[in-house]
Amino acid sequence: MSAPRPFLHDDFLLQTEPARELFHHYARNEPIFDYHCHLSPEEIAADRRFPDLFDIWLRGDHYKWRAMRSNGISERYCTGDATPKEKFLKWAETVPATLRNPLYHWSHLELQRYFGIETLLSPKTAEEIWERANAKLQEPSFSAHGILEKFRVAVVCTTDDPVDSLEHHVAIARSGLKTKVYPTFRPDKALTVDQPAGFNAWCDKLAAVANVEVSSLAALETALAKRHAFFHALGARVSDHGLERCFATFAPVAEIAAIFDKVRTGAAATPEEREKFATHLMVFFGHLDAKAGWTKQLHLGALRNNNTRLLRTLGPDTGFDSVGDFPQGVALARYLDRLDTDNLLPKVVLYNLNPADNYMFATMVGNFQDGTWPGKIQFGSGWWFLDQKEAMEWQLNALSNLGLLSRFVGMLTDSRSFLSYPRHEYFRRTLCNLLGRDIEQGLLPRDLPLVGEMVKRICFNNAKEYFGLQVGNV
Known about the structure:
The protein is α/β, with parallel strands linked by helices and 474 residues long. Helix content is 49%, strand content 8%. It is globular, with a radius of gyration of 23 Å.
């Protein structure tokens, strides 16, 4: 009897011969175009080296923290004062409990692809894996630059506030790194007029970096436009907005200006006033993007910071967010329609977090395709809680049934971790398995070059052409 195949073997997720052909001959070796992530530009600029497996793998990873808390692990071992090794050992204790959670796949893919470790992580194997991985991390190829080159990452788009100096992007551009690293314009704080202390502090920072006294709505717009142009000069061609839902309550400019003046005195905008102010600025941002030839990303549907006690203790982005059930369709349609009516609708990628909205989002993009660019409005990849096999298949099926899968710009990491690049492989295996099954069932022709060319385009070339960014020679 032959030995059983190892877990995550070479044909992992590839359940048919056509799927295996598509992945190994068309998808596997394509470079990575990571057009949305949260990697630290400072760490890339410094070509950071990581002292241990905790630092590169667990630090800042709220996916893992959520699993550890669910497994009864104390907060001390997630975000607290436990040592790096103690935190890793608690993660190793949790991993066997993550069976059927995508973390089980991701964690072992990362151990294999980065460290060559095929041993399953558990309390019994934790010490061995800790030592082996830490030894690997001492090798030159495990610096930030080495990792990007190892995984043939042609483009990285980070996520950056308009007030950021972008000094690290300047340093990266001068470093000789093969991967092209670009900033992304993320002006979410400009909408927070219901939180005057934070909003006014942010406006003051904006005034300083833009050299504009932000004392009026017009001055705010001037400062934001200057920063948008500064990002553009450093290669940016993508913006991003993280919203519960779109805003579409249009009001006269004089009313918006009065709201701004009120908040600058320290008074909070009412919910109705915030709605109007945010609508106005989102239209303004849409116009900026369209005039500059940028792509706008709209991440819609997260219900954030649900645990008040731990938000106060740990801050945001620590694992207490969930899928929201906000009504999306009407406001999204009105917002896109306003930009289209103004003849200033940029390319747009829409990401939803509630799978109940898949068909609405997939049909919405078809309303605003105008023949100027293939797939101008995109139904974006599975995001956050939906970036696992099942939900990626839901997104791919909705897009296929209601739009053109062949024009899809593919996967991204949306990650803060340099160990997340196997997520592209995970997506590619899922895509090829879906298409291979269709071929096996006679739903697609058994023409591997035809289907394979579409796979290659989804993996890399569609994004390369769509975003219009120079790619690295990887």
